[in-house]
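Hi L.,

You mentioned the student needs an example of a multi-chain input paired with its predicted structure. This one should do, with 404 residues in total across all chains.
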Amino acid sequence: MSGVASPTSPRKRILETARDLFHERGIRAVGVDAIAAAAGSNKMTLYRHFNSKDDLIVACLRSFASDADRIWSEIESANPGDKMAQLRAWVVMAAQCVASDERGCDFANAAVELTESDHPARIVIEEFKAIQRYRLATLCRDAGIAEAELLADTLSLLVEGARASRQSVGPNGPSAGFIRSAEAVIDSFAKANAGGVTVSSM
Amino acid sequence: MSGVASPTSPRKRILETARDLFHERGIRAVGVDAIAAAAGSNKMTLYRHFNSKDDLIVACLRSFASDADRIWSEIESANPGDKMAQLRAWVVMAAQCVASDERGCDFANAAVELTESDHPARIVIEEFKAIQRYRLATLCRDAGIAEAELLADTLSLLVEGARASRQSVGPNGPSAGFIRSAEAVIDSFAKANAGGVTVSSM
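Structure written out for the whole complex:
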């Protein structure tokens, strides 16, 4: 983010500035004038690159989604072939996201603010969350968990909850226990596996 | 909520209307003019009862908090003396909140929208969440769970996550598994108890 001239294109500067401001202050709290000014640009240039504020919101969410793709790639390349290690690395990465960022998930936050069911951002939010859920369930299955979908959904709820809680009550609330909660849950699913029983019948 | 005359006081009508509109559409998306009009009142009357929109937001949150107090009382009176039954009733009640309301927790939503660290709503949000956490941890301890704080925090994260997820991706996302996730977690903590081992060492 910058208010000074930089060699990046106006479109890129506006997009990066909007990402930062929406993330820090919320989507409705930030207007296009403030974004254009903070990007060292103007409203006319902003509207040349993005047809509307909604269009800019969608572009920001797609950009956040590509950050998530990069994190998945890092988890895989740091733990090649070891799916259980990748699952535990996912927990560590999620814990880092929770601890380092008081503002939570940009997609969940956008869903709170953009309540119109036909808002163009909603399909991007749903797609993003569906992809994360699919990747996590696939990882749980590949890690040998019998109840892979339930474990993936449980871990999804824990991380969504940790990011929401961090935002409501700060880092010393329930989110402080995220990593212990998530590891205890993974252990109990893996143990249920080993015992040949399902978690839901424990 | 009503736009027609009713025997309730103007203050109460405005408060109930604001609760409904903030809940449905979000806090920043709804202005005081819209609230006054929907309450069959006017801005001057609204400002006679509430000094500012922020004052009205705080009053709405305190009103939501008293709803939560009532739910706790219902859980206790429906399961007198049986703390484990109360804990399982809490899960059922939380699942009902998740399933019946696409808009999630008003306190978590307010935290997403009101990003200013000195906003007067933030202390109300923090107090509310701290009380819920304390009550849940006390219930887990009274139900005989050794790692009561960790179970309470895990359940808190699950319900926060379920409400956030319900809002982002609807009722068929990970929140659909909330009740199974929460019950599996309670069972594994109770089982760890019985085995004389701590969950974190499982």
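You could point out the following to them. The mean pLDDT of chain B is 93. The first helix of chain B runs from residue 10 to 25.

Best wishes,
N.
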